[in-house]
Amino acid sequence: MTAFARQTPSPTRAHRRRRGARSRCHSGLPIGHWRHTESTGSYKKTTYFDGRFRPLLTLEEDTANAASKRYTRRAFDHDNRETYASYPAASDPGQGAGTRTSYDALGRVISTAQNDGPSTFLTTSTAYLSGFQTRTSNPRGQVTTVSYQAYDTPDTSAPISILGPDGVTTSIARDGFGMPLSVTRSGLYDGPPVAATRRYVYDGFERLCKRIDPEAGGTLFAYDGVGNLIASAEGQSSSLSCDAIPAAARISRSYDHRDRLLSVVASSAWPISALVDSGWISAATAP
């Protein structure tokens, strides 16, 4: 039994989900596809699935406005990867304008083509180089090459070098856990080479305790036992150590038992405080 067949309609509620049903041929979909309808007030969303429960066609509409219909069609390959997604349209777009995605034999994206006109496309291509690098060319032909830090799996979440099309290089030094230790941007500016580095220092729990900016020096951070930021201070030394936060520069924060921010209080040198309610400042005091 499918997840759709287990859903029970609730006609007494404004928001309800109706269980799926096998449908007759609709909009080119084969007989035996599934339909799922979700309603919230006058909003209605109908999704048509194929036999593998892949969403091929979606219709969103305001049932009080017949001109509000918006169709989106998708297509998938043998491995359930999305190969086509249409632009929203007032009628079923079929295989019209949209985004088309191609993959290599390993399932990696190698090109993405978006319609720029009835028969023209803006294509972004990606090549996978040795040494775990990617080279991406955008529709304007500009190339960006990225190198990554990875160990047992090809994980692209930790880039260590980004060479942009304008000749600017971003170098990221990381520790063994993938945490950034420094970020350096370098390149040419009006002739001579220039570079700027931002550094990061962590405590024994891998929490950021200091950020060293090239333009403002060090910013200190302190946390409570559950990881909430309880204090910070700007304009501190640029040493690579987790220093104690001086009282004269301290900005303190407090939280309730659900870890929601309650107040922000500046130092005695700048006695400004704010009370926070549901994420909004409800009261503020200043000298």
Helical fraction equals under 10%
- The rounded distance between the terminal residues' Cα atoms is 66 Å
Return the structural class. Answer: mainly beta
In total, how many beta strands?
22
Instruction: Describe the sheet with the most strands.
Output: 22 strands, antiparallel
The outline comes out as: extended
Q: Proportion of β residues?
A: over 45%
Rg measurement, Å:
27 Å
> What low-confidence regions span 5 or more consecutive residues with pLDDT below 50?
1-19
Question: Helix and strand succession?
Answer: HEEEEEEEEEEEEEEEEEEEEEE
So how many helices?
1
Overall residue-averaged pLDDT value: 87
Structure commentary:
This protein has 287 residues and is mostly beta strands. Among the domains are: 1-96; 203-287. It has one helix at residues 3-6; strands at 15-22, 34-40, 43-49, 55-62, 65-76, 82-86, 98-103, 109-115, 121-129, 133-137, 143-148, 159-163, 169-174, 180-188, 193-202, 208-213, 217-223, 229-236, 251-255, 261-265, 273-277, 280-285. It has a 22-stranded antiparallel beta sheet. The radius of gyration is 27 Å and the shape is extended.
Short note summarizing the structure:
With 287 residues, this protein is mostly beta strands. The chain contains one helix and 22 strands.
Keywords:
extended; 287 residues; 1% helix; disordered N terminus; 1 helix; mainly beta
Task: Tell me the layout of helices and strands.
Elements: H1 3-6, E1 15-22, E2 34-40, E3 43-49, E4 55-62, E5 65-76, E6 82-86, E7 98-103, E8 109-115, E9 121-129, E10 133-137, E11 143-148, E12 159-163, E13 169-174, E14 180-188, E15 193-202, E16 208-213, E17 217-223, E18 229-236, E19 251-255, E20 261-265, E21 273-277, E22 280-285
Antiparallel strand pairs: 1-2, 2-3, 3-4, 4-5, 5-6, 6-7, 7-8, 8-9, 9-10, 10-11, 11-12, 12-13, 13-14, 14-15, 15-16, 16-17, 17-18, 18-19, 19-20, 20-21, 21-22
